[in-house]
Amino acid sequence: MTGPLVAASVLLVCFLPCGALVLRGRREDAVIGVTASGVLGQLVLLLLAAAMDRSIYSEAAVALVLLSFGGSLIFLRFLERWA
Hints:
This protein has four helices and no strands. It is mainly α. Helix 1 (3-13) packs antiparallel against helix 3 (27-52) and helix 3 packs antiparallel against helix 4 (55-82). The model has no long low-confidence stretch (mean pLDDT 86).
């Protein structure tokens, strides 16, 4: 395995604490977990693009940036209703 693939694998393991934070944490912590998951997903896609020399993964990372930001805003909107 190459260096970027190993780094992507390590970052995939980091999704577990983010998921636990979203499911079990307070509402404020859940927002941090959602945002951190978006950032981790973007980094994994960029590392896969570097490892496999495919530009489509870079484009998917850019799309994930936009979707992650919008998803965080929607998540905050629902939290505002429940609070």
